[in-house]
Amino acid sequence: MIHFDVRDHVAVITMQGETDLNLGVIGPELFERLLTYQDDPALRCAIITGAGSKAFSAGADLKKAAKEGIKVDFWTGRDNAFMRSTDFRKPLIAAVNGHALGMGMMLALYCDIRIASRNASFGLPEVKYGLSPGLGATQRLPRQIALGPALELLLTGDAIGAEQAERWGLVNRVVEADELLPAALSLAQRIAKNPPLAVQSARELAWKASSLPIEHGIRAEMMMGEIVRKTEDSVEGVRAFAEKRPPVFKGR
Hints:
The structure is a single chain. A hairpin with a 2-residue loop joins strand 1 and strand 2 (10-15). Helix 4 (103-110) packs across helix 5 (137-144), helix 5 runs antiparallel to helix 6 and helix 9 runs antiparallel to helix 10 (214-229). The chain is of the alpha/beta class. It has helices spanning 28-39, 62-68, 81-84, 103-110, 137-144, 147-156, 162-167, 180-192, 196-208, 214-229, 232-243, and strands spanning 2-7, 10-15, 45-50, 55-57, 92-96, 99-101, 113-117, 121-123, 160-161, 173-175. It folds into 2 domains: 2-192, 2-enoyl-CoA Hydratase, Chain A, domain 1 (Alpha-Beta Complex), CATH 3.90.226; 196-243, Lyase 2-enoyl-coa Hydratase, Chain  A, domain 2 (Orthogonal Bundle). The strands form 2 sheets. It has a 6-stranded mixed sheet, with helices on both faces. The chain is 43% helix and 17% strand.
């Protein structure tokens, strides 16, 4: 089950599985909710978290998989194609409240920013079961932390705690459990108060930075900057600053 709540311009998406580990919740229903967020111009930032305090999501239900088999259609499978894409346009914050393992960590890596509670843990245990991490994890992880720590996680399948994740740069900050959602909401609201098109352009350029030669990235930055400068929000931002008043951004 996926809960979808709106707080001003921020969507809070909460995953709730049949157990307190929130197993098996990363799939079509979650992706539909993410598309709802992306397609709503009134929503400017989203937080993804797990119900309860034990897990963000501990991944797939391996007991169910052992009974039914792991079914993956390499060529046409679409259930999890969402996370294999790099087309998402709006900022996502993962508020990791406990275990983020397997697909749970893959989802956290898909997000732009991660905040963790002190009881959080992160791991990609697939190799322990004769599997290979997927959904972009092998590509995103070495782009977000140093190669050595990334390979340690990928090749051992071991999990790390929140403090280690913070030292490696996997999470932005670690907070007490009861401060997690307030901290994520505070950050989301700081993002949401900015003009949406400027935020989306900065986000896209930052994600492309690791895959483009710097001269191509700077050229893309110049082109995107020229486009954003011609938006209504850009005119409003400069005018509001000059008039010493709060800006009113409309995403245009």
